[in-house]
Amino acid sequence: MLMLGFAGFMGILKIVLMALAAFGLVDAAFRREDAFRAADKQNKVFWLIVLGIALVVSYLFSILGILPIAGLIASIVYLVDVRPALKQVSGGGNRWGRRRGGSSSDGPYGPYNGGR
Questions:
Q1: Nearest alpha carbon to residue 32 among 87, 108, 99, 102
Q2: Which of 8, 39, 77, 111 could connect to 89 by a Cys-Cys bridge, CB 3.0–4.6 Å?
Q3: Tens place of pLDDT for every residue, the chain, 116 residues?
């Protein structure tokens, strides 16, 4: 019974590792190449290869091996270091393209200048 619970936990952990690598891979695929250079990170192709290998390794191998752990580290590095730098370079990463803050005279379609 205990081994069955442990196997279930390891299966969930494997899915989480795959989800982290897949999210990082999709996010890197949709980022612009020049954003990687502007953020002074490795290039886009490098991160696509690293995250793709991390996804495949986390799918094929047991979670207790060294390769899935290396893939987890690569995914975490992308998510906590590279992704925020890319968001900052790309315009702050505002959701849905909305500006933050703004003037008190801003209307829903831009600044309101009173008909001037």
A1: 87
A2: 39
A3: 667 777 788 889 999 999 999 999 999 999 998 889 888 888 999 999 999 999 999 999 888 889 999 999 999 999 999 999 999 988 765 555 555 555 565 666 666 666 55
Whether residue 72 contacts residue 58, with contact meaning beta carbons closer than 8 Å, is answered with yes
DSSP letters, 23-66, are HHHHHHHHS-HHHHHHTT---HHHHHHHHHHHHHHHHHS-TTSH
User: Which DSSP helix (H) or strand (E) runs through 93?
Assistant: none
Q: Phi first, then psi: what are they for 90, rounded to 5°? A: -80, 5
Owner of token pair 């890319």:
86
Q: Which residue, 78, 80, 110, is CA-closest to 97? A: 110
Kindly state the tokens that stand for 17: 């590792």
Predicted structure pTM score: 0.72
